Amino acid sequence: MNAPRVGFAGAAAALMMRDLRLALRRSGDTLQPLGFFLVVTTLFPLALDPQLSLLRDIAPAALWVGALLSSLLALDLLFREDAQDGTLEQLALCGLPFQGLLLAKTAVHWLLTGLPLVLVAPLAASALGAPYQAMPGILAALLLGTSALSLIGAVGAGLTMSIKRNGSLLALLVLPLAVPVLIFGARATALAIAGEPLAAPLYLLGAIAVLAATLAPLALAAAVRVGLE
Amino acid sequence: MNELTADNLQLWRGEQHVLRGISVEVAGGQCLQITGANGSGKTTLLRALCGLVPLEAGRIYWRGNDVAADWAALHAELNYLGHDNALKAELTAAENLHYAAALRRRVQPGEIAAALERTGMADSAGQLLRSMSAGQRRRVALARLMLTGGCLWLLDEPASNLDARGQVLLLELIGEHLGEGGAAVVATHQGLGLPAAQLRSLTLQ
Question: Does residue A95 belong to the interface with chain B, where contact is any CB pair within 8 Å?
Fold first, then answer.
């Protein structure tokens, strides 16, 4: 009974390991957002006139719409299962900062949907005719953008976790908030492909990501607590 | 000294006045049994005591301190077993216990196996929860209760789905917990078989 208590870092790491292990157990579901992103972005070149200039014009839109929609795919399950089986209550009652634990869960969501997307983005971008020199800019924009999308999406997932068949409501809540990410992400990508300086939209993406990382945990914990009542 | 005290708890659910001025007192080594008809608010009271449901009025004190100021102090020593077992269907019994315990304390090697042994689930340590019966899952949840410790146990119908031997085991675990100076609040209709000095009861109308 008097064994040493764990610190927050240990508990959060164990929680992340648990979620990663669960994701590995159903790899089909886990890979779905990545598959969706790859299919959408690589179908564009096939459906369009094979002109490099045309492909390069639509590349930012295709990449970012694909990233936004694929980040929504796995979102509705982020908290719902934990809420149903009671493990989310245990997180709320373990005496450790609830916001931090929910942020750890959100980080796992990013590791499973955002990070793989960033890793395959060079493939998708080159299919859309983006030049080699544009890759660092595209990757930086996607790194910031997908982090912001995971954080914003988690708040929506927390708000709708106790609603059955919440997919469309979740999209309705999250999409308007995600539009700035889409705008600045696509702008940064377009500038990177054109070979122009892209610091301005990247700074704005970074600001959105920092803002989301600061405010989302507060909103998320409040939303999940209401859902647990 | 009372470990947990609650005064005049009031809670409405929509039009329904669920908790009407409930007061609770449990000292270390004591068990408070909550009884009452279905729908009388037993679960709501337990959830209110651990802060999952906000109260309209009333105060809860943990070791003399108002919990509204510091829920974490209560939560750090709380062990809550609700209707749901709080176990993941896609993990094995041993994995579930490992991750559940990791939120609260460092587990020594062998403790998980010992807890499963005690609850009669040693042979199923590597079995996925999904493939277990409801009673077996409850036994794994009891193993979690043992493993995560905590001075205050809040148990909501802990005997549900348990067979006769499982219920005996549950009573033994509660008895040992009280023997170590812990406190428990248990919502159940079954007799707990505790000596009168350890047992208090509260009936919700």
Answer: yes
Do B86 and A93 lie within an 8 Å CB cutoff?
A: no
DSSP three-state, residue A30: helix
Q: Is residue B29 packed enough to be buried (19+ CB in 10 Å), middle (13-18) or exposed (0-12)?
A: middle
Among partner residues A11, A87, A94, which is closest to B75 by beta-carbon distance? A94
Is the minimum CB–CB distance between A20 and chain B shorter than 8 Å? no
Please give the C-alpha separations between residue B93 and each of A94, B84, B163, in angstroms, as whole numbers.
20, 15, 19
Q: In what order do the strands lie in the sheet containing B2-13? A: B16-27, B2-13, B57-62, B65-66
Ordered alpha helix ranges (H), A76-166: 80-85, 87-92, 98-109, 115-127, 135-159
Tell me the C-alpha distance between A106 and A32, whole Å. 18
CB-CB under 8 Å, B85 with A1: no
Global ipTM: 0.92
What are phi and psi for residue B156, nearest 5 degrees? -105, 110
**CA separation for the pair A80, A163 (Å, rounded):** 9
Structure tokens at B169: 């085991």
Q: Is A164 on the interface with B (CB under 8 A)?
A: no
* Per-residue model confidence as pLDDT tens digits over B118-140: 999 999 999 999 999 999 999 99
CB pairs under 8 A between A and B: 100
- Spell out a b/e string for A18-56, using b for 16 or more CB atoms within 10 Å of the CB, else e: bbeebbeeeeeebbebbebbbebbeebbeeeeeeeeebb
Question: Which residues in chain A have Cβ-Cβ distances shorter than 8 Å to B90?
Answer: 22, 25-26
Q: Which residues of A touch B67 (CB under 8 A)?
A: none
Please write the tens of the pLDDT for every residue from B149-202.
889 999 999 999 999 999 999 999 999 999 999 999 999 988 888 888 899 999
| B82 touching A (Cβ < 8 Å) | yes
Whether A14 and chain B come into contact, CB under 8 Å, resolves to yes
Give strand pairing partners of A207: none
Contact: B54, A90; criterion CB under 8 Å = no
Long-range contacts of A171-176 (CB under 8 A, 24+ apart): A171/A72, A174/A72, A174/A75, A175/A68, A175/A72
What mean pLDDT value characterizes chain B? 92
Question: B149 to chain A, minimum CA–CA distance in Å?
Answer: 5
Question: Per-residue pLDDT tens for B33-47?
Answer: 999 998 889 999 999
B104:A4 CB<8 A: no
In the block, tokens 């796992």 appear at A108
pTM over 0.90: yes
